[in-house]
Structures are given as structure tokens and as C-alpha cells.
Amino acid sequence: MHITCCAHLKMVVDLGGSFCPLLHREDVKMPVRTLPSSFLMLLAIWGVLVPSLSHPQPNPCRMIQRMALCNNGRLSYVPVGPPCNTEELQLNHNHIQTLLNSSLLHYSSLHTLSLAGNYLEKMEANAFGGLHPLQILNLAENELHVGYQDTSHALLQLPQLRVLDLSQNGLEDDMVFHLLQNLTSLQYLNLSRNLMQRLDESSFEGLHHLRELDLHSNMLFEIDGAFSGNPKLQRLNLAFNYLPCLVEFHMTQLVVLNASHNFIEWFVAEQGLKETFHLETLDLTDNKLLFFPFLPSRSRLRNLYLSQNTVRFYGGLVDDATGENLTTSIQFYNLNGNASNVTAQLWDDSLHGDVSSVEILDLRNNQVEHLPQGFISQMQSLTRLQMQTNCLKTLNLTSEGFSGSLYELDVSNNRLSEVMAEKGTLAALGNLTYLNMSLNSLRRLPSGLFSSVESLRSVDLSYNSMGICPSETRGKDEGSPSDCVVWRNMASLRQLYLRGCGIQGMPPSLFAGMRLTHLDLSDNPGLRVETGALRALTGTLQHMGLGKTDMKSVDFSPFHSLRYLNISRNSLTQLPMSLLNLDLRMLDASENNLSTISPGDAALLAPKLRTVFLAGNPFNCCQMEWYRMFETTFTVNMVDKTEILCQDEAKITYRAGVLTILCGDSSRESVFWYLLLVLSGFLLFVGIPTVCLLTFRPLLLQKTVKKKSLKPTSY
Ligand SMILES: *[C@@H]1O[C@H](CO)[C@@H](O)[C@H](O)[C@H]1NC(C)=O
Ligand SMILES: *[C@@H]1O[C@H](CO)[C@@H](O)[C@H](O)[C@H]1NC(C)=O
Ligand SMILES: *[C@@H]1O[C@H](CO)[C@@H](O)[C@H](O)[C@H]1NC(C)=O
Ligand SMILES: *[C@@H]1O[C@H](CO)[C@@H](O)[C@H](O)[C@H]1NC(C)=O
Ligand SMILES: *[C@@H]1O[C@H](CO)[C@@H](O)[C@H](O)[C@H]1NC(C)=O
Ligand SMILES: *[C@@H]1O[C@H](CO)[C@@H](O)[C@H](O)[C@H]1NC(C)=O
Ligand SMILES: *[C@@H]1O[C@H](CO)[C@@H](O)[C@H](O)[C@H]1NC(C)=O
Ligand SMILES: *[C@@H]1O[C@H](CO)[C@@H](O)[C@H](O)[C@H]1NC(C)=O
Ligand SMILES: *[C@@H]1O[C@H](CO)[C@@H](O)[C@H](O)[C@H]1NC(C)=O
């Protein structure tokens, strides 16, 4: 049977008038007429409030050109409302359990059908009869594991299907095998969130045109010879499975391989291949790698994500163990017990494959103690090196030979005590913009490190022991080790973080010639911040961190651009007056000694502030006008509101938001009004239903009254 669109045109036109029928109004009114008029009024209000709840629309589709949107409609069938020349039909999140042979007869021009989230269990074998143009089919989030056999027959009728989403359908290996039989035209296949365990030659055979395959969040523990029939496969997602290794990797056509969040100990590409691998992105985040992956010997790899593994380099180890016989061949067994030997020169750090095109190397959270010689200098296009949380002890910028393209260098949270650089090296780092060396034990840095690098915008040196050089220090030779930094004349620098550096004093002409927008000096107790020392920054500074610095009387008034200020943990007994005229967006004044904020100050701050932190202060419960002012200003977010406490005259602690009745007369009066409000609210709440009950159930009431009065009394 072949249905043409014209045969149905008339029917569609006929339906047009009753597209969104409003037929219920009469039905409802008729029985209502006999009810008391007050009930009618309530019903009318109810009708205004929840029209959609009371009358579900039978045809919920909305047309946008040739696309019919019928999502979230609780439909249990495919509607016929949309015209039959509709090209895209979206029926996501309805209740269609079976796609019948007749369901789609009406739509012969469909090229996209979306049935995600429908409890769909099966499709009858002829459900797509006559739907040859269908190219895109989304069946995600259904129950196709129930009727996969019928469904697989139905899919056979789609010779042009390019895109198929079968994610989250409870599918096991053999079900997938059935469903994919002869879908030779598929280019994109999504099988994520199913129950697949093993892949082999037969899994995707015949899918010659497949380009993208998503298998994330299955239970895969073995891949044995799969993908040999998919010469065009470019993107493969294997994330969140149970794979223990990826060896003999030889998919030269692949561009993106995501094998993150598995249990991979070994990644070994086939070393003998002369061909260049097309691999550009390899994601092995969150695995169990012990070794840097054994990459293809020729590749275009640009993005290498290896964070959250236990990678380290073993070069030093072998030197120590000369004479030992170190294995260079590893045996891997598959489920059938077939062994394959993979030979890799485990201990030779220079043989980890071709990294010459790598731009992003993410090695965060590993155990790297040193970088092999020549390792970094091979990466002539390296822009981002992320080595946060490793075990690096030293870093010699000269011998590593970073490329001029380096943009971000993050070596924070390592064990660095010294960073070295020879004269002339630093100027070569002309593109370095973000430098993070926080959380190390740095005692020495090459002098001129920050002033010689031309594009440096952000430096984080927090939690090291690097002091600030006294102002009389003359600039030393570039590169020579220095135990303090001269913070002057770094024209490009905008963000400087010097938290917890044990800084004690601030020399007078500090920051001269600099245009910082962010400065964080928090966690330097005893810093004794003086306005004069920061004078150079008054015009530019937008973010200032002075938490836990023992600051007392800084004059903030010259800092016109300041928007974010952190003065927490400073034992302040009142907010600095000079804050009030600034255009502050964020203020952190938590953990000080504030007992109140005067109503005048609060009135000045409230309209400007967006975010404020004030917990950890010993506020006085009887002087909390500021709290109510901030609370009623909707633009202010008191982030730690529930933790703001206050004490009354008897030193009893309350939450600031909770009512207190122990202050002076005026507040007692306000409590009276508050109670009155609560009482009237209560009356409203209880009263209205009672009145309604009395109005609409007069008979019932009479009965109850009668019953009560008929009860025999005990005397
Ligand atoms: C798939 O196609 C092959 C060859 O075209 C055919 O022999 C086989 O029967 C088809 N499989 C199914 C399940 O239709
Ligand atoms: C596959 O489907 C999952 C779940 O529906 C979705 O999160 C994922 O983005 C899809 N994959 C691709 C490549 O679109
Ligand atoms: C790999 O997959 C995970 C999980 O789906 C995702 O979070 C991550 O962004 C992917 N990696 C890449 C490089 O796309
Ligand atoms: C290394 O292997 C050779 C040959 O198998 C053996 O003779 C030698 O004793 C081994 N050396 C050590 C230190 O185990
Ligand atoms: C793998 O290597 C072991 C030890 O070198 C050897 O005994 C075994 O025969 C090799 N197996 C294969 C399949 O080559
Ligand atoms: C840093 O590396 C360079 C080049 O390899 C070398 O000449 C220099 O001695 C090294 N510096 C230190 C302090 O080891
Ligand atoms: C420096 O970085 C910018 C931005 O990332 C980039 O466009 C430029 O090519 C880089 N310069 C060099 C020499 O790599
Ligand atoms: C520097 O690294 C530390 C720790 O890894 C991190 O907390 C901090 O936010 C980073 N600094 C900047 C400016 O990104
Ligand atoms: C303010 O500084 C303190 C102390 O250094 C810190 O704990 C807090 O997180 C900072 N507040 C904000 C909002 O960043």
C-alpha cells in the first residue's frame, strides 16, 4: 500500500477548524447551574488558574513550517492533526507504548521522527512501511529491550536511515546485534546508557558508513576485533565503561576517541604501522594508567587528556636499577583465553610515540615527578600544559624548552621548591598568559620571571614562601635566582594572587607602573595593609582580597573601580566608612567583630550590593535593622543568611532570621503586629474552607448538627 499526501489533504483541512477545540465550556456549565453562585465563582477562579490541568488538549501539536512539535503531551498514539506533508515529527515525552503498523501511515514525507522518552516497547514490523525518506530516528529513553525483535524488523524498512539514537533502552549485546542488522546507511549511532558488555567483529559489521558512535555508560569490559567493518568511523565515545586496557590500537581513521572514566591501565597503539593516525583528541581522563600512553608513532594528536590517573615517568628508576632484567613485553588475554603479546619499551621515556602536534596536555592529578628530557621540547605547538596536583620537584624552564606558543602553564599543587631559567629563556615565552604556581614550596624564582614575559596577564603564586622585595632592591640579572619578587612595571599583568605567602610588610612604591584589576593578598596575617602601598592601583583595581590580613584602617575611597572586596577574618568592629561611597557589587565581611551595621550605612550599601557575606560576626539582636533592609532588598543575595547569628541582652544566641522578643519597646510593638499578621493569616486559611463547607454542604451540616443534638446526654 502506498499512501500519497493528496488523499489526506482533505481530511487535514477538515480537521483544521477544530485544532484546539474549546468544547468543554458548555459541558462544565450545565451541571453547575444548580449549584450555589459562590461555588460558581470559585470554579471560575479555578478555571482561570489551571485551565490546562482541567482539560488536556486532544491535539497538542504546534507547527513550525513543516515541523510538528507534539512533545510532553501524554499522548498514547501518534496524532493525525499535523498535515501529511510534515517532514519532522517530534513526539518526545509522551506515552506511546507501541508503534503500530498504522501509526505513521498518514505521514509519508517524514524525514525526522523523534520518540524519545515514551515507554516505547516495540514497533510492529510494518510500522515504517512506506516511510522510505526517513533519515533521522530518535528512540532514546524507551523500553525497546522488551520488543527488540519486532522492532528490528521494522527498522529494516528504512534504507535511508542516517541517524539513529537508541540510548537508554536497556539493550544487551545480542539485542543491539539484532536491531542493527542491515542498517548499512547509518552514519551516526547512539547506544549510550545501555547494558552492552562486549564488542567483537559482529557487533557493528555492515555499518560501512558509520562516522560517529556513542557507547558511553554501558558495561563494556572487552573489545575484541570490533570496528574493522567501519572504515569511516571518526568519533568513538567509550566513556564510563569497565574497560581494563586498550591495546593494539590501530584505528588510523579515528579523529576523536573518548575512553575516559574506565579502568584502563594500558593504552598501547600498534607501533609497527607506517600510516599516520588521524587521531586529534584522546581522552583518557579518570582511568588507572601507570604509564604515559604509548601513542602511535605518527599522529596528528592535538588534545591529550590524561587527568586523574597515576601516570609518572620511570626514566630515573631504570638508571638506579641497572643490571635488573626489566620486562618489555606485556601479555594480554581476552575472554576466550587467547593471549596477545604487546611489546613496548616501558622504561624508555623517549618512546611514547608522536606528540609533536600536541596543543593541550592535561596531566592534572597524576604522579609525575619529572618530565623526561626532550619531552616538552618535542611539542612545538603546545599551548596549555596542565600539571596541577603532581609531584614535580624542580622545573628548569630552559632545559624543558617550552615552545613560544605556550599560553597556559599550571604547575600548582606540586612539590616545587625552585623554578630555574637561564638568561634569554624568558623572553622566548612570549605567549605565556596564565601562570599558576600556587601551592608549592617555592623559595626561589628566576629574577625577572614576571617582567620578562610580555603577555603575562595572570599570575598565581599563592601559598609559597616568596616574599616581596624591598623597594630599594635593584633589578638583578635576568634569570639569576632570587628569594623575593619585585612587583613593579609589569605592564601586561592584570591578575595577581599572593594569598598565604607570609608577606609581612608592603614597601612604598609597590606595584608602581602596574595596571592590576585583581589583587588577592588574603591569608597574610600581619601584612598591615596601608593605603599608600596600593596607591598605584587606585584607578584599575576591581577585585581586592584582604581577608585575614589584620587590616585595620585602609582608606578605600580612592579605589573608584572596586567592585569585589573581601575583608573577612580581620577582627573589624565596624565597616570601614570609606566603603560606603564605592560602587561595590560583592562584600565579604564575614568572621569579623561587627555588632551591627548602622541603618544609614546599610541604606547606602543595599541598593548597590549584589552579594554579601556576613556570618561569623557577634551581631546584636536589638540592632538588626540592617538585616531586614538587606533581606527586603531583592537585588541583594545574603549568601550565608542562615548562618548569621545575633545575641540578645542576656547573651543568648539566635538566628538572625528568627523572631526575637527580648529587645526594647519598639521591637515589642513590631512583634505585636507580626503576631496579628500571623493570626489573620491563620484565620484566612482556616476560615475560607469552613465558609465554603458551610455554603456548599448545607445538608451535610444539618445532618451533623442533627446527629449531635440527638446524642443522648450523660445527665
Ligand atoms: C541483510 O541483507 C543481506 C544481504 O543483502 C540479506 O541476505 C539478509 O537476509 C538481510 N538480513 C535481514 C535480517 O534482512
Ligand atoms: C547520545 O545520547 C546521550 C543520552 O541521550 C546524550 O547525552 C549524548 O549527547 C548523545 N551523544 C551524542 C554524540 O550526541
Ligand atoms: C568524554 O566523555 C565525557 C563523558 O561523556 C565528557 O564529559 C567529556 O567532555 C568527553 N571528552 C571530550 C574530549 O569530549
Ligand atoms: C637477567 O636474565 C638473564 C637471562 O635470562 C639471567 O641470566 C640473569 O641472571 C638475569 N639477571 C638478573 C639480575 O636477574
Ligand atoms: C608471548 O610471550 C611469551 C613470553 O615471551 C611467550 O611464551 C608466548 O609464546 C608469546 N605468545 C604469543 C601469542 O606470541
Ligand atoms: C637548566 O637547564 C639548562 C639547559 O639545560 C642548564 O644549562 C642549566 O644548568 C640548568 N639550570 C640548573 C640550575 O640546573
Ligand atoms: C599566541 O596565542 C594566541 C592565542 O592563543 C595565538 O593565536 C597565537 O598564534 C600564539 N602565538 C604563537 C607564537 O604561538
Ligand atoms: C591556581 O591553582 C590552584 C590550585 O590548583 C587553584 O585553586 C587556583 O584557582 C588557580 N588560580 C587561578 C588564578 O586560576
Ligand atoms: C574571602 O577571603 C577568605 C579568607 O582568605 C576566604 O576564605 C573566602 O572564601 C573569601 N571570600 C570569597 C567570597 O571569596
Automatic annotation (TrEMBL):
Which keywords, in A-to-Z order, does the entry hold?
Leucine-rich repeat, Membrane, Repeat, Signal, Transmembrane, Transmembrane helix
What is the designated name of this protein? Answer: Negative regulator of reactive oxygen species
One Pfam family it belongs to: LRR_1
Q: Which domain of life is it from?
A: Eukaryota
Under the heading PROSITE patterns, the entry gives:
LRR
Supply the source organism's classification. Eukaryota, Metazoa, Chordata, Craniata, Vertebrata
State which residue ranges cross the membrane. 671-696
Task: Kindly list the GO CC terms recorded for this protein.
Answer: plasma membrane
